[in-house]
Design brief:
Pfam families: DUF247. InterPro entries: DUF247_pln. The longest helix has 17 residues, at about 30-45. The protein is about 50% helix and about 0% strand. The chain contains three helices and no strands. The chain has helices at about 5, 30-45, 55-65. About 0% of the residues are buried. The protein is flat and about 50 Å long. By secondary structure, the chain is mainly α. The chain has one domain (about 20-65).
């Protein structure tokens, strides 16, 4: 959310649990969730007998422009 839209109540727009995307990347208070997300990705790959996220990254990058 743009700063202009956030206005006086910036905390109303701060994510507390799950963050997707680059905005909060590297935020120390969300590090625990980053580790959880990696664990879930690893579990998904194992269930599908896959070792790489490359095809998923490609699929998401194809949809990126439309998602913005």
């Amino acid at each position: 959310v743009y700063d202009k839209l956030r206005g006086e109540n910036k905390e109303a727009y701060e994510l507390k649990v799950l963050v997707i995307g680059p905005y909060y990347h590297g935020d120390k208070k969300l590090q625990g969730m980053e580790e959880q997300k990696l664990w879930y990705v690893q579990q998904l790959l194992e269930r599908r007998n896959e070792t790489s996220v490359d095809k998923y990254i490609m699929a998401l990058s194809d949809m990126e422009e439309g998602a913005r």
